[in-house]
Amino acid sequence: MSTREYENRKNSLRFNGKEIQLAAKMLESLQTTIDIVYYLMEHEDEQTFVLMLVSAREMDLGTLLENEKRDTDILFEIDKEDALYVMLCQDTKVDGGYHFAQRIIRNIQEEKGKEIYCTELEIRSRHYSPKQVILKLLETFVKSKQGEQSDEIVFRSLN
Fold first, then answer.
1. DSSP H or E run through 26
2. Burial of 2 (0-12, 13-18, 19+ CB in 10 A)
3. What was the pLDDT predicted at 46?
4. At what angle do helices 94-110 and 61-68 cross, to 10 degrees?
5. Contacting residues for 99 by C-beta, under 8 A, at least 6 apart
6. pLDDT at residue number 121
7. In the structure, what pLDDT confidence band is assigned to residue 90 with cuts at 50, 70 and 90?
8. Strand, coil or helix: what is 4?
9. SS (H, E, C) 100-151
10. In 3-state terms, what secondary structure has residue 59?
11. How confident is the model at residue 135 (pLDDT cuts 50, 70, 90)?
12. How far is 126 from 101, CA to CA, in rounded Å?
């Protein structure tokens, strides 16, 4: 049996059905919260924030993330079955977000977690809509999985 043409498009922006369902869940869960953080950026001198999308198998990732987050961080369970979570880290810049992700990955590895994927976006301005930010986060995550970048932090900044 031959491979279908669309299965060979690793660099395509096309999402499969499951990824589109994840995008819908993420939009539903995160859009209003990002609107609020944007308001804080505009009116309360918040500088930047980081969104982290992380998954790992064979461990209780939700509990680990809940224990690691700060009071100002917001944790979202996107897909319990696939252990997929988003954490919004307010007033966080590149260095802080990257070091936090390193600590998360190290703790997942200590807990014997498998298939660890971690993508972070630093948002520096309100130039992008919440929808664009969420879809860019998912797109970066999907590409990291396609590129088999397990146990790595894939970090991007949106200006």
1. helix 17-43
2. exposed
3. 65
4. 140
5. none
6. 96
7. very high
8. coil
9. HHHHHHHHHHHCCCEEEEEEEEEECCCCCCHHHHHHHHHHHHHHHHHCCCCC
10. coil
11. very high
12. 23
Strand 153-158, strand 114-123: pairing = parallel
Phi, psi of 11 (to 5 degrees): -95, 5
DSSP SS3 for 158: strand
Instruction: Give the pLDDT band of residue 12 (cuts 50, 70, 90).
Output: low
Handedness of CA 50, 78, 138, 145 (dihedral sign): positive
Question: What is the C-alpha to C-alpha distance for residues 56 and 17, in angstroms, rounded to an integer?
Answer: 21
Phi, psi of 17 (to 5 degrees): -60, -45
Instruction: Please give the Cα distance from 36 to 65 (Å, whole number).
Output: 22
- Pick from 2, 4, 12: which is nearest to 146 by CA? 12
Q: Which tokens is 150 given?
A: 């397990």
Is 10's pLDDT higher than 70?
A: no
CA–CA distance, 8 with 5 (Å, rounded to integer)? 6
The pLDDT of 3-14, averaged and rounded, is 52
Angle (CA) 106 74 36, round 5°: 145
